[in-house]
């Protein structure tokens, strides 16, 4: 019973390249969340998705960032034309429908993006 | 905007002592959660307390919630070196769809 799987664990991109981060939710979970964490800081909400729907993207930067959760396959967080300020750890979490669980989110191990 | 704010930012104690971390939040909530993060790893869910609950226990963990003061505390009893980690509170507010995290308390337990 695998938990939330994120890949890659580490990603290095040059400025201007695209970064694609993948997240497969825990089996039975239909809700996916992406968070960004800078060193020594808390997690900043980015986006909340269900299959084929973006529910809340209020934490996503207006430009260069997009997210999807297709009917089949993992959720993808895409960052176009990366800049040094995008360097961070990006965490994905999944959950069953909100309000139905006493167990909060299940987090993946994160993708550490370094922009050089 | 930040919802949960943890206090203290960092805490250093000896093994065997109790560790208390506090969290304050701003809006009405459905529930409050505590998570733990070891350095360089993902977060692990510790405990969830609903807005109509006042106290909850799980092993060496005790969480309290005071909705009138919009605050929560996490108590770790008889701490161990392995408890060294960052601890975050997170809230599900009544008006939104997302869980908001605080900046965390960094706990150091010295052997």
What does this structure look like?
The complex is a heterodimer of chains A (116) and B (111). Chain A is mainly beta and 116 residues long. Helices cover 0% and strands 48% of the residues of chain A. In chain A, strands 2, 4, 5, 6, 9, 10 and 11 form a 7-stranded mixed beta sheet that branches. Chain B has 111 residues and is mainly β. Chain B starts with a strand and ends with a strand. The model of chain B has no long low-confidence stretch (mean pLDDT 91). The A-B interface holds A 4, 33, 35, 41-45, 48, 55-56, 58-59, 91, 93, 98-99, 101-110 and B 2, 30, 33, 35, 41-45, 48, 88, 90, 92, 96-104.
Percent in strands of chain A:
over 45%
User: So what's the overall shape of chain B?
Assistant: globular
Mean pLDDT over all positions of chain A: 92
Span between termini of chain B: 37 Å
Strand runs of chain A, count: 11
What is the general shape of chain A? globular
Pair of chains with the largest interface and how many residues each contributes: A-B, 27 and 22 residues
Can you write the helix and strand succession of chain A as a string?
A: EEEEEEEEEEE
The secondary-structure class of chain A comes to mainly beta
From the alpha carbons, calculate the radius of gyration of chain B and give it in angstroms. Answer: 13 Å
Number of helices of chain B: 0
Strand content of chain B is over 45%
Give average pLDDT of chain B, whole number.
Answer: 91
Helix-strand sequence of chain B: EEEEEEEEEEE
Span of the ends, CA to CA of chain A: 36 Å
Oligomer: heterodimer
Radius of gyration of chain A: 14 Å
* Biggest sheet descriptor of chain B: 6 strands, mixed
**What share of residues of chain B is helical?**
under 10%
Helix content of chain A: under 10%
């Amino acid at each position: 019973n695998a938990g939330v799987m994120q890949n890659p664990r580490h990603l290095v991109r040059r400025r201007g390249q695209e970064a694609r981060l993948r997240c497969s939710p825990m089996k039975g979970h239909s809700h996916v969340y992406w968070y960004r964490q800078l060193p020594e800081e808390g997690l900043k909400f980015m986006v909340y998705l269900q299959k084929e729907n973006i529910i809340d993207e209020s934490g996503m930067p207006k430009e260069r960032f997009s997210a999807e959760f297709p009917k089949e396959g993992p959720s993808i967080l895409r960052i176009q034309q990366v800049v040094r300020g995008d360097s961070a750890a990006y965490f994905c979490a999944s959950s069953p429908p909100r309000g139905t669980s006493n167990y909060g989110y299940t987090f993946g191990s994160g993708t550490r993006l370094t922009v050089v | 905007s930040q919802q949960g704010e943890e206090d203290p930012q960092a805490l250093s104690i000896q093994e065997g002592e109790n560790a208390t971390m506090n969290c304050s939040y701003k809006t009405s909530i459905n529930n409050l959660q505590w998570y733990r993060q070891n350095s360089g790893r993902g977060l692990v869910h510790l405990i969830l307390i609903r807005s109509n609950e006042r106290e909850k226990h799980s092993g060496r963990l005790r969480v309290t919630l005071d909705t009138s003061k919009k605050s929560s505390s996490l108590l770790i009893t008889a701490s161990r070196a392995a408890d060294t980690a960052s601890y975050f509170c997170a809230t599900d507010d009544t008006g939104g769809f997302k869980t908001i995290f605080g900046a965390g308390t960094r706990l150091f337990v010295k052997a």
